[in-house]
Design a protein that fits this description.
The chain is built from 4 helices and 15 strands. The protein has helices spanning 2-12, 25-32, 75-84, 120-123, and strands at residues 37-39, 42-47, 50-57, 60-67, 92-95, 98-101, 106-111, 114-119, 138-140, 165-177, 186-193, 196-201, 212-216, 220-223, 229-231. By secondary structure, the chain is mainly beta. The protein has 2 domains: 2-123, no CATH class; 138-231, no CATH class.
């Protein structure tokens, strides 16, 4: 337990139990140092064996991802990180595989080897709701993947997806995932949409990890065993 306390004190700032969510760029760098990579509105930091990805809106942190190696985070670490990031937002409640604060300003979900905490503003910066139901069609982005170069964070607002289109950046391909209510593992692709990790089973695409794809006619079907939404 003492090791856990020391680790979190290092991550969140010695002598400071306040949240990292909503911190300014200067406050984030005071906690974690300069970013090791990133561009646009999202930067990656490393400290004490932990990788911390921070997403900014108008110069403040609205997305935090804590990950560590292949073993991920322990349950006590997840609980402590949630508690440290709920200052003034009320208690966390776990509903259908995801946490939300009582006042609705923050949410959190489990991700591979870690935890993602984000604000209502980050979630609402674009939408994947209102999906249509024609046969799926995939369009490969012509733009190259963003270069991961450490620059000073700038304020950018993610562009919203067009109505009826799920648009996201591929973060993992050729994976097999347990879906709630199904016995067999389902192969598919993970995409990131506005800071949320979404699984698309049986999706075939020539796009590579880091590229953006658009899929028309998908609807939300349920949750993975880790609480992530999946669409088909």
């Amino acid at each position: 337990m003492r090791t856990l306390v020391l680790l979190l004190a290092a991550l969140l700032g010695a002598g400071n139990c306040g949240a990292a969510l909503f911190d300014t760029v200067a406050q984030v760098e005071a906690r974690y140092g300069k970013p090791v990579s990133g561009s646009g509105d999202r930067f990656i930091y490393q400290k004490d064996g932990m990788q911390i990805t921070v997403g900014f809106i108008v110069g403040r942190a609205h997305l935090l991802e804590y990950t560590r190696g292949d073993n991920g985070l322990e349950r006590d670490e997840v609980k402590a990180l949630l508690e440290a990031n709920r200052i003034g937002a009320g208690r966390w409640k776990l509903v259908r595989g995801r946490w939300a604060t009582e006042d609705g300003t923050m949410e959190a979900i489990s991700i591979q080897n870690g935890l993602r905490i984000f604000s209502k503003q980050w979630k609402g910066s674009a939408s994947v709701e209102g999906m249509l139901t024609p046969p799926p069609a995939i369009a490969r982005s012509k733009a190259p993947p963003p270069a991961l170069t450490a620059q000073a964070p700038t304020a950018q607002t993610p562009s919203p997806a067009a109505p009826g289109i799920l648009r996201g950046r591929i973060i993992q391909k050729d994976v097999k995932v347990h879906l709630v209510g199904m016995k067999l593992l389902k192969p598919g692709v993970y995409v990131e949409v506005n800071g949320e990790r979404i699984f698309l089973p049986h999706l075939e695409t020539t796009a590579i990890v880091g590229e953006t794809i658009e899929v028309a006619g998908v609807v939300e079907k349920g949750r993975t065993e880790k609480g992530e939404r999946w669409f088909q």
